Amino acid sequence: MLKSQIRKRILKIRKEKNKKNIKICFAKVLNKIKNKIIGGYFPVNFEIDILNFLKELDNKGEKICMPVIKKNNQMDFCRWSTNDILNLNKFGIPEPQEKKKIIPDIIFVPIVAFDKKLYRIGYGGGYYDRYIEKISKKKSLLKIGIAHSCQKIKKVPLNRFDKKLDIILTEKGIIQ
To answer: What's the pLDDT score for residue 20?
Structure first.
């Protein structure tokens, strides 16, 4: 099956699943987060909402950053706090108005579909794969995918640009 076909099928399933307000247990990765720079995301299109978790970390003094879309299908992460002003990017996704770039130690990655080998399908723009490729040359980056268990597929069709995640969190637990 093509990635576009998988994407269409799983997005429909995810939309229905998200209505049930399933909780992801972030407590299972809290020990990896202390005193690290955390890269989050603003949930869209029924992605799992991690904003309350990020706000909790921000309130505890952890450094949070969020993606900012640039030209040429590139992405950076910029410092973010719960009180910061946001702008909508060309996709209608909120992003920090303040463009103070920061490189995360840990990045939470939204997922459309994933497999047991920790590969993912996103929306097809390659933003996260390019960012992971670029930053991994500079420093170690823990990549944590966030998904419903129903988004798991047998095998993600891979191309040479796809990057493997380190962990995937679902409502059923951790996949490593």
So the answer is: 54
